[in-house]
Each structure stands twice: as C-alpha cells, then as structure tokens.
C-alpha cells in the first residue's frame, strides 16, 4: 500500500511539473505573438511616416502639386527618374 502511495505522489509531482511547464510554454508563446505584433505595428508606423514625409517633400518640389492627379504625379516622377542627371545623382548617392 505504501508503495502505491509513493507512486501516486511521484506521479502527481511529475504531472504538476508538466502542467507548470505547459503553462509556461503557453505564456511564452503568447509573449512571442505580442512581440511579433508590436514589431509589425512599429514597421507599419515607420512606413506610414516615411510615405507621408516623402509625399510632403514631393509636393513641396512640384509647383501646384495639389492640383495634379495621382496619375499626373506618377507620370512626372517616372519622367524625372529617366533623366541622365537623375541616374547620375542616384549612382553617386548610392556609392556614398
């Protein structure tokens, strides 16, 4: 009888350790999800900020840009990026 009680006690201890470990694993997985979500939100905010900043720069350089359509702005930028001067400047900037 005492042997059976010892076995049951050891079993309960092992089961408790397993339960604790599984709970800790669940907590760590949730923590990982939270961190990954925070990273995604941070990157999205950085991208949004960059797009707004660059859009503001573009509008400041194009006279009456607010009167142009998105398509017209796209055409202007496409044409500007085809120029020899643009390509040379970009090459120099990338080398530095």
Automatic annotation (TrEMBL):
Record-given protein name: Protein of uncharacterized function (DUF3847)
Coiled coil feature spans: 4-38
Tagged with keyword Coiled coil: yes
Keywords: Coiled coil
Organism domain of life: Bacteria
One Pfam family this sequence matches: DUF3847
InterPro entries given in the database record: DUF3847
């Amino acid at each position: 009888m005492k042997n059976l009680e010892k076995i049951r006690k050891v079993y309960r201890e092992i089961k408790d350790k397993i339960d604790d470990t599984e709970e800790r694993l669940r907590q760590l997985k949730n923590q990982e999800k939270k961190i990954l979500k925070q990273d995604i939100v941070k990157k999205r905010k950085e991208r949004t900020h960059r797009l707004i900043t660059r859009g503001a720069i573009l509008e400041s350089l194009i006279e009456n840009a607010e009167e142009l359509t998105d398509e017209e702005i796209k055409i202007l930028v496409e044409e500007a990026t085809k120029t020899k001067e643009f390509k040379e400047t970009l090459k120099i900037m990338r080398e530095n």
